[in-house]
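Researcher: Following up on the earlier apo prediction. This time include the ligand. It's manganese (II) ion, with the SMILES given after the sequence.
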Amino acid sequence: MTDPYRERRERVLASLGDACLVLPSAPVHIRNNDVEHEYRQDSDFYYLTGFDEPSSVLVLRAEAPRVVLFVRPRDPERETWDGLRAGVDGAKALGADEAFPISELAAELPKLLENSSRLYYRLGHDRGFDDRVLAALDVVRGRAKLGKWWPVQIVEPATLVHEMRSIKSEHELGLLRRAMEISAEAHLAAMAKTRPGCYEYEIEALLRSIFRKHGAERPAYEPIVGSGPNATILHHRKNDRRMNEGEVLLIDAGCEYGYYAADITRTFPVSGRFSPAQRELYEVVLEAQRASIAATCPGATLDDVHAASVRVLTDGMVRLGLLAEPASEAIEKQTYKRYYMHRTSHWLGMDVHDVGPYFDRGKARPLCAGQVLTIEPGLYVRADDGDAPAQFRGIGIRIEDDVLVTADGCEVLSEAVPKTVADIERATAS
Ligand SMILES: [Mn+2]
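Model: Understood. Below is the ligand-bound prediction.
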């Protein structure tokens, strides 16, 4: 099997010309006192190395050594506390032409920057690391009188790496599909286990346990488990409420598997049966989601995908008496935003809100085969909204699937999670 990381580095190297790229690993964040937050590698760094240790730096350059890694050295005493390290030899085994202990960065980096015309580096993201890169540039600039040249431009690496990450390879799609399978199982289990009297955190615990049971590293984001009025809070995260008969439960949760994220939302009745008002709102959101999925194909834009949902949702708001003015006027004046205040899609991949440009000089970019996006329309009627018909107050609905753009349309990757009223009522009854 070809090494996907090597293949990606080769693609970056091929477009670097005589430039070089410097990419540090994610920093370690302290949680409190001497306890660290769980470490997760920077997505770009992992995309190009498959290496998950902190205190590492990748350098790619036109001349040999073309691939250089700085890493934490082996250290039996530290390893007894914190686990094994790959060390310099391990870094070479990953495919680096040259590897150094991270303590040698200040001495080695200037040499590696020599004779490159441009430096791809994400300036301003990590001020501490900026200092180290700028110090290295200063050293190599001082060697000009020896006939060396140095990078006179610093270029945003997103222009290279994020363009690549936005089109998913078969290898990446395999990991995404596995993340979807695990997340689908978790959503199905949540539907089956939810009962009046459950606490939101019990369902959150169930989701997390199924993610881990299948080897997913972690949730791709903090799971949202919102019952009753909490379903109208877009990023509800306390998950501490006891749910009651007659309410809906909104679950927005997906796992991260092999560094790839699923992002799935379903809304279902706590007691297994939608009330007439819940069902009316639900059917509008489902129809909106179908319209957006139908609009997803190469050449369309995320604005088109969003507009398809806005049209159906706004028609529904007018029909159900949430809005008094005609739908065309509500869209024009954006009064629909009272009940649908977010966008319909974002990119999905290693990051749940994945990288990749949405616009090209202000113009929405056309979709391409291989891109993955979410489609997640919703309707949210606050409990204290005195203008809304009483039966809709305190109901929030969101339906979110993850969709791959294909050559002639799209494929819903998260299809295994029930979403019609009949299928949901069946899944919650089991
Ligand atoms: Mn999402």
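Model: Residues 342 and 412 are 21 Å apart (CA to CA).
Researcher: Noted. I'll compare it with the apo version next.
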